[in-house]
Specification:
The complex is a heterodimer of chains A (326) and B (388). By secondary structure, chain A is mostly helical. Helix content of chain A is 73%, strand content 3%. Chain A has 16 helices and two strands. A two-stranded antiparallel ribbon of chain A has the order 1-2. The radius of gyration of chain A is 28 Å and the shape is globular. With 388 residues, chain B is α/β, with parallel strands linked by helices. Chain B is 35% helix and 16% strand. In chain B, strands 1, 2, 3, 6, 12, 13 and 14 form a seven-stranded mixed beta sheet that branches. A five-stranded mixed beta sheet of chain B has the order 9-8-10-7-11, with helices on one face. Chain B has a two-stranded antiparallel sheet with strand order 4-5. In chain B, β4 and β5 form a beta hairpin. In chain B, α6 (217-230) runs parallel beside α13 (376-387). Chain B starts with a helix and ends with a helix. Classes of the chains: A mainly alpha (326), B alpha/beta (388). The A-B interface holds A 1, 4, 89, 91, 93-97, 113, 115-116, 118-119, 174, 177-178, 181-185, 197, 275-280, 282, 286-287, 290-295 and B 1-2, 5, 84-85, 87-88, 91, 106-107, 109-111, 182, 185, 188, 190, 234-240, 243, 246-247, 250-252, 359, 361-363, 375-377, 380-381, 383-385, 387-388.
Chain lengths: 326, 388
């Protein structure tokens, strides 16, 4: 019974195999299989010969599945977001929802409503502030790690810099929440002042959270910078400041851009820090979150905004020639 | 033998299809489950904090483990902090049951996420308070989608050492010259607009608000303006109750709308946080929660078993005393007479005085037909403006 049923369903093994399987199998394996079964000049062998003669087929066999996954999951999601954002939800009667014909109403509302403009400006301001703070902290640390510290100390520092990444995002945010508490937090008790839970507190926390993402690319960039260049600059009479401005900084721009893409985009997308800090500061992410269940198309439209800002940022960076070495 | 097996399988498949499709001409009860079968061995529960506790917060607070032992349904619990979250998460289809408040239950029904419940399978249904059953927020046209769990009012919580004299009015959180400015909390959900409307009901009778969830343009704008003004004195808009408790412990928040469970937790903490709660003289917004089953629940039998368990008298008594609410099952009051008296669990008149979370709609809920009311989408948009 089992065999009969199996054949009906195409479950039993037949000597035939699809071309996809042959193409995906490693070459060495294909060769050994072909050699051990020379008697059967099988379909498999013909397929193998067919594929071997056509490099594009091999390539598409190997790259096809991951690429189509990328297209579906990444680009597909973005397209779905865009399509959703062009629709409109209408409440009819009690709670019924109807999605009306595509239009730009959501984007018009985003531009015309003052509160959404100020949320966007505030978020971009925070992203810039976080990036600047991280850059100011990362440059000296990375320079020390790459050019000054001994090998042992350098290793220890790399571990120390990456260590915060081992702990969860939430754990670190809750920890900062206790540090920043305006009544009895560590900063109030021992430093005497705290940015509290407003936008200042959010910026400080996010700058802490994303700092490793700025240090590591700059460290890698400085590591590639030959010491001889610094020595040559000194030999030619360049002081530390001049050497930094004329030699180090221009060569570091790609690394700084790489780091800033992380700090900038991660801040643009963040909403949880504000949520934990009591929602006194609204970022784009918070507004998306609050509209998500009540008005999905509008939330989708607002999600497009950080994407557009990032595209503009990358175009700007490319215009400045910063992406050529990435 | 081969043939007979296939025939049997075909017959079974057809029977399943027929059962799944149901018979639309049967009337109201055709879609509901007919009996509780063998448990599926698992259940996914979406619940307000402290509604489904398995000892993970406090080993003493655990009624889910006994359910797992009794039924063999291994429970996965997911907590939510606002009704919007509940509605969205339940809509994902990953959960078998949800403890829904009135401002998300009807939306879930309208979205097709809620299954019709066969009340004859709910052993304790007869013992549940009659004024909770088949209400606008758990039933539609006589079809039951929600089984009552418990109810209570949103209370005004305050730090007894910092806030003196003790407040007795919601005016304490709306006073622009409050000495506690910057340390006052509001609840971060559009439904909080109703709290402002409730306060205006008492203080500005000219507006003619009779139901804080049914606001026309003028009434709505008055409530939104009050909240925008309140923004200046607010220290936090809370949605994460753990963080909210933390801020009372640290002293950065001293007063705000709250749930009784938060008061109880802080009073029972070590060291105890000096807080107390009051039901202000204006009355209060409130919740009346119901268990709902997802229309595509993967574990419908365990879902019914869970609802039977959570509505049984002993468990209701435990949940109600832990959370600080009135139990739906009045038999729970046999062992918890003091608690039931304190929360007016059996007092229908008291129940009717509170204003339960419900979804605002364009068609005014208070029966007015000459004017349009603001629907929930507009409440959400206004909430964005209030937060700034």
């Amino acid at each position: 019974m089992g065999r009969g049923l199996g054949r009906d369903l195409g479950l039993t093994r037949t000597p035939r195999e699809g071309p996809g399987c042959a193409a995906l199998r490693p070459l060495s394996h294909q060769i050994s299989t072909t050699m051990s079964s020379t008697k059967r000049v099988s379909t498999r062998r013909r397929v193998a010969r067919h594929v071997a003669a056509r490099p594009w087929l091999r390539l598409s066999g190997v790259l096809g599945p991951p690429l189509s996954w990328l297209l579906l999951a990444y680009i597909g999601a973005l397209v779905a977001l865009l399509i959703t954002s062009l629709h409109q939800e209408v409440t009819v009667g009690l709670i019924t929802r109807r999605i009306t014909a595509p239009g730009l109403d959501n984007f018009r509302r985003l531009i015309e409503t003052p509160v959404y403009r100020s949320v966007t400006v505030r978020t971009v301001f925070a992203a810039v502030a976080v990036t600047v703070i991280d850059l100011a902290l990362a440059l000296p640390v990375a320079f020390y790690m790459a050019k000054v510290a001994s090998v042992g100390r350098r290793r220890a520092l790399v571990i120390l810099v990456t260590m915060p990444l081992w702990a969860g995002y939430l754990v670190k945010t809750y920890a900062w929440s206790t540090l920043l508490n305006p009544e009895s937090g560590f900063l109030r008790e021992f430093v005497g002042a705290t940015p509290g839970y407003g936008i200042g507190g959010s910026i400080v926390t996010l700058a802490y959270l994303w700092l490793p993402y700025m240090i590591l690319p700059i460290y890698a960039g400085l590591d590639r910078l030959p010491d001889s260049l610094l020595e040559a600059s000194t030999d030619l009479g360049g002081r530390a400041g001049r050497t930094f401005r004329s030699i180090v900084l221009p060569l570091l721009v790609p690394s700084i851009v790489a780091g800033s893409i992380f700090t900038f985009s991660l801040t643009l997308g963040d909403f949880y820090v504000n949520r934990i800090y009591g929602n006194k500061t609204q970022f784009i992410g918070n507004t998306i979150f609050s509209n998500f269940s009540a008005n999905l198309p509008f939330a989708a439209a607002f999600s497009i905004v950080p994407i557009l800002i990032m595209v503009a940022y990358l175009l700007l960076a490319r215009g400045a020639g910063a992406l050529e070495e990435l | 033998m081969k043939k007979s097996y296939r025939l049997a399988a075909t017959a079974m498949a057809l029977a399943l299809v027929a059962a799944a499709c149901g018979d639309d001409d049967d009337g109201g009860s055709s879609g509901a489950q007919e009996e509780i079968g063998e448990g599926e061995g698992a259940i996914s529960i979406l619940a307000w904090p402290y509604y489904a506790e398995n000892g993970s917060k406090d080993p003493e607070i655990d009624w889910v483990s006994a359910f797992e032992d009794d039924t063999g349904c291994k429970a996965t619990i997911k907590e939510f902090g606002t009704s919007d979250e509940a509605f969205t998460l339940f809509g994902s289809g990953d959960y078998d049951v949800v403890s829904a408040s009135g401002d998300s239950s009807l939306r879930s029904v309208a979205a097709g996420d809620a299954a019709e419940i066969n009340t004859s399978l709910i052993e304790n249904y007869a013992d549940l308070a009659p004024f909770l059953k088949e209400k606008a927020w758990n039933s539609v046209d006589g079809t039951v989608y929600g089984i009552p769990h418990g109810w209570g009012a949103n209370v005004l919580q305050f730090n007894t050492e910092e806030v003196t004299p003790a407040p007795d009015s919601w005016g304490a959180v709306f006073d622009p010259d409050s000495p506690y400015a910057g340390k006052i909390a509001a609840y971060n959900s559009p439904i909080y607009i109703a709290d402002a409307a409730l306060y205006l009901m008492a203080t500005k009778p000219d507006l003619g608000i009779t139901n804080p969830y049914s606001l026309d343009e003028t009434q709505f704008n008055a409530a939104v303006d009050l909240l925008k003004e309140q923004n200046a004195i607010i220290g936090e808009y809370w949605s994460d109750y753990v963080q909210y408790e933390e801020h009372y412990t640290a002293g950065s928040t001293v007063m705000g709308t709250s749930w009784q469970i938060i008061v109880n937790t802080l009073q029972g903490a070590d060291p105890a946080v000096p807080v107390d709660s009051v039901l202000p003289k204006e009355g209060s917004t409130a919740w009346s929660d119901n268990w709902m089953i997802h229309s595509d629940a993967k574990n419908p039998n365990c879902a019914y078993k869970w609802i039977n368990y959570i509505t049984s008298p002993a468990v209701q008594g435990t949940v109600a005393t832990t959370f600080g609410e009135a139990p739906a099952n009045l038999k729970a009051c046999d062992d918890q007479a003091d608690h039931c008296a304190a929360y007016f669990a059996e007092d229908e008149e008291y129940y009717n005085q509170l204003h339960y979370w419900t979804t605002p709609t364009k068609e005014c809920l208070d029966g007015r037909t000459d004017v349009d009311c603001k629907d929930y989408a507009e409440w959400v948009a206004a909430w964005d403006e209030i937060l700034g």
